[in-house]
Request: fold
Amino acid sequence: MSTFDLVIRGGTVITATDAVPGDVGIKDGVVTAVGRGLAGGATTVDADGMLVMPGGVDSHVHLDQPPVGAQMCDNFDTGTASAAAGGTTTIISFAWQTKGSSLAAAVEDYHAKAKRARVDYAFHLTITDPTTTVLKEELPRLVAEGNRSIKVFMTYDGVRVDDAGVIRILAEARRNRALVCVHAEHHDLLAWLTEQLVEAGLTAPKYHPWAKPMVVEREAVNRIVALAEALDVPIQVFHVSGAESGAEIERAQQRGLKVWAETCAHYLVLTADDLDRPGMEGAKFVFGPPARTKADQEALWSYIRRGVIGVVSSDHSPTRFDATGKKIAGENAPFHKIPNGIPGLAARLPVLFTEGVSKGRIDAPTFVRLVSTNPAKLFGLHPRKGTIAVGSDADIVIFDPNKSVTLTNASMHHGGDFTPYEGYRTQGYPVATYVRGTLVFDGRAVVGEPGHGRYLARDVYGEIAPLGRFTSPFNPVDGALAR
Ligand code: URP
Ligand code: ZN
Ligand code: ZN
Reply:
């Protein structure tokens, strides 16, 4: 019997801290050796000249959700095919409560939907209706079952939760030990600005960022940080889009708060100018918060280098560029009737590597931290996921740092009909992706089977422990004097 089922030989193994020449030995889906001159593989793959990295962990992926504006065009089958093609081996998707319905039923529903996944997955609990039953009866059980993160929206009609609801969710998150992830935009302000723009006849896609200027996001980030501080709850701020929101995060971290943040690949390469393409082309760049300026991009890189922003996700949120999706309200629909969201799962690693490592903004270990190790740690999946170490799942991407690919919709391997990265030229591309030692992408085709993916239940972990520090001598969550 062979010592290893698979040996990946002769590459440079990249982890969160190191870039070291070596081989990786895999047995029964787990890394069992990292070293030099490993022999005894039933299969050996030559990785000479390649980077051997932990598979991507994408902690912000929308699949098969009920429409917020339009039907999503990726389910767990097509969406995770796209993940595999982009070197991502774990996704955290959303179990999405619809208003008036049970959260527990939503989780059950998503377990059934995710049976077709090709890569491993966990769920954030999206709470849109924080009733007493949901918070006091359903949530404790769902968190204990391994769903250790909650998502709240401060905007979007039909899903948003007002401040009173957010506070009650934060309190239950603290009691049950779950990380709260937040979409932070000032709903009433952006709604009013939208009204004024529409009344003035300014309705083309390029006016979408005008309805959501930076202050809309900055104020909401400031507010959620304050609420989380008052209740002593760790939070992850989703999709920080530019300088001013990043500054709010940095200030919170400087005060010692457990406030973390992600940005997304699209904020690093797209700008508000992309919304000004001819006709409805700009609709391909409608997402929230909106794309901003080159200066914001440079600020985001600075936050990344300083560790203020620790995760780069895709916020994969795909609809088609037709009457089921971006054009659901017609060919020349006003910007506020164009569904928010873009696909991005397959592009995340190649685009970030190109912009980051190939252009000299970050080194390869920093890249691995951003796309894999940090999200794995933040969401309680490490060290099973997010690293290459003895005992870790053999989730590996072999990445050619010199491979140049012009991105097209076909290369995304998703269910959609467009990519906002059409024509983007990469320097660096995945040539093989393995999930627990099984090849799921061979550099050209997705070869992983639907159903190969497994659900990842998450236990209590260090990051979600509260600080034990309140803004008054009273601990309002437990109704006791704070220590
Ligand atoms: O525009 C976006 N980001 N749509 C997806 C849902 C969300 O806000 O995360
Ligand atoms: Zn969001
Ligand atoms: Zn999202």
